[in-house]
């Protein structure tokens, strides 16, 4: 039995997400994601001009005439949500935490998927695989996915994105639209993402808080690393320190996006201020235009 406050939170996200779904895709969901390949449909007699690579030699030998395999585009896609639930995701200085923002983004994508009769799966990770939910269809399943992202009690605070990506590559055999939702505060994930992107349509979504991009103008404060517990005393009234931090943060983000572009991965940066509908809409409309060419 769900606690009333838990149910209320999930219901709020459901309502906001459904509204965003209508604004975001407006019936163009399939054109936003790459086709997941072809599935076998039937065997028919060879017609001059057919691609000889599709000749079914067993059937041709049995019937005494050349036959080819006919394929059609797969009607059903799989959406895999890979969500970072390490301790750094608890941070939020404005309306909500990075974890809550991740849940809302996941909800928008998941409701869009089930609206098109697609499958939705979830992989949550810290520095271990916290939970894997195999892809399924249906509203009840999507509500479970949202609940898990919001209220799952992780076992570890740290992050290991490479391990999560390697795990997904092992368990997800069918090509999938793979959305990675994380702040990407980790190292050595370049090779696993490169390998994953060879088999899946990978879309990284970078979730940041505004104070991770630019420090607030305060005085002497103690800042705690949520994953290690280390305390750092910083004078936020020192303009040199805050400017260095801002430049370092921007440089790291630029390097991350440059890497994603080198793999031709569409990527998006969102913040915890709750204003995700407009940038998400622009992102997917641009992606739709690119995939048409």
UniProtKB/TrEMBL annotation:
Residues 42-252 form the DUF58 domain. Gene3D superfamilies: von Willebrand factor, type A domain. This is DUF58 domain-containing protein. InterPro entries: DUF58, vWFA_dom_sf. It holds the Pfam family DUF58. It comes from candidate division WOR-1 bacterium RIFCSPLOWO2_02_FULL_46_20.
């Amino acid at each position: 039995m769900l606690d009333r406050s838990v149910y209320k939170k999930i219901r709020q996200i459901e309502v906001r997400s459904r509204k965003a779904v209508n604004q975001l895709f407006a019936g163009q969901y399939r054109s936003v994601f790459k086709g997941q390949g072809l599935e076998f449909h039937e065997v028919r007699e060879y017609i001059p001009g057919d691609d000889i690579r599709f000749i079914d030699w067993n059937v041709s030998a049995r019937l005494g005439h050349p036959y080819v395999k006919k394929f059609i585009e797969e009607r059903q896609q799989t959406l895999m949500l890979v969500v970072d639930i390490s301790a750094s995701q608890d941070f939020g200085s404005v309306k909500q935490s990075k974890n809550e923002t991740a849940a809302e983004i996941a909800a928008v994508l998941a409701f869009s998927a089930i609206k098109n009769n697609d499958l939705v799966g979830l992989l949550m990770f810290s520095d271990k695989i916290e939970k894997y939910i195999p892809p399924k269809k249906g509203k009840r399943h999507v509500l479970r996915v949202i609940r898990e992202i919001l209220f799952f009690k992780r076992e570890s605070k740290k992050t290991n994105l490479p391990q999560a990506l390697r795990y997904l590559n092992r368990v997800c055999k069918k090509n999938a639209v793979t959305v990675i939702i994380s702040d990407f505060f980790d190292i050595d994930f370049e090779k696993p993402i490169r390998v994953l992107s060879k088999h899946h349509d990978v879309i990284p979504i970078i979730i940041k808080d505004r104070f991770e991009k630019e420090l607030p103008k305060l005085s002497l404060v103690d800042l705690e690393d949520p994953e290690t517990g280390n305390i750092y005393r910083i004078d936020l009234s020192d303009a040199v320190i805050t400017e260095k931090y801002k430049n370092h943060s921007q440089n790291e983000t630029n390097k991350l996006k440059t890497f994603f572009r080198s793999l031709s991965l569409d990527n998006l940066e969102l913040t915890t201020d709750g204003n995700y509908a407009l940038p998400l809409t622009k992102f997917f409309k641009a992606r739709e235009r690119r995939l048409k060419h």
